[in-house]
Amino acid sequence: MRKAVLQTVFWIVFFLSWQRVVYFYVDNVTNRLLFTAFDVGQVILLFYLTYSIITPQLFSRRNKILFLPVLLTTVLVVGVLFVYTMQYFLHYRLVPIYFNFSWNYSDLVANRYIIALLGALAGFIGKLSVEWFQARRKIEEAEKIRVATELMYLKTQVNPHFLFNAINTVYIQIDESTEAAKHTLSSFSEMLRYQLYECNQEKVPIEKEIAYLQHYVGLQQMRLDERYQLTFTYEASLQGFIIAPFILIPLIENMFKHASNKGTPTIISGALSYSNNQLTFHGINTRDDDRVTAKAGGIGLTNMKRRLELIYPDRHSLTIKKSKDLYEVWLTVQPI
């Protein structure tokens, strides 16, 4: 229905515009409207014949050998049809068309063929344009589905080592302290609830992401001894910032994974800040140089980089700096 209305409006506008062109050689209002009706009617007929039948049946289906002959034959037939129609109307004075200029039979024939060709070309170009836009839209939709599927896969992955450690911590605490075990299980439950039910959207408030990170850090802290100096801070100015879920957790996981365990004091520190319309995460941890291999970071960091490319193209910066005993990471993200 909407297409029919838009097309009707278009042809009305086209009719009014065309009669202004006819005005230059037919000044009588009645004559001008009748001539415009003949011209626009011929254009519409050729347009829809080419748009709806000839182009999709021959050109779009790769029958291009027949396309041009059929199109030219159609132009010829319709042109002749309108020539004889106008001759008939003029000869028997069926309509009061009077010329204020000299126009012979050859001019009439040439004019009809030109009008017919104009309609055919408009239908051909129009159909190709519509098919091009439709094909492009399908490609874009397919790409969106692919990206959405990939993001869903990357987002819902859970680190199996963390699951094992969390369950093991609860198991140990059951004998040592029931209350501590309940607290651990509650934190773990909140994290799973966030993953399963609150992250179905592309973006979430930073407050929810921070709560998830705090639960994670808290669970990790329960299994660490006093050698570990663990801090996780964030600025109050972050309130209201919207971010893709699970973008930050791989960085914090990586800090715990590669922290030093030689028995010396170990620093694991993460800080979130917001300024100049961008979120900044700065993480730092001491590390053992001989424990870090070429594959340091694992699949979690790789997935995070891929998600950043998909969600924040040209709107993020990730810098990782390694020294002999220190690992630092900076991530900046600008809102979309």
Automatic annotation (TrEMBL):
Record keywords, A-Z: Membrane, Transmembrane, Transmembrane helix
GO MF terms, alphabetically ordered: phosphorelay sensor kinase activity
Domain called Signal transduction histidine kinase internal region: residue spans: 150-227
Entry GO terms, CC: membrane
Transmembrane stretches, start-end: 35-54, 66-90, 110-130, 232-252
Pfam families referenced in this protein's UniProt entry, alphabetically: His_kinase
InterPro entries recorded: Bact_2-comp_sensor_kinase (IPR050640), Sig_transdc_His_kin_internal (IPR010559)
Name this protein carries in UniProt: Signal transduction histidine kinase internal region domain-containing protein
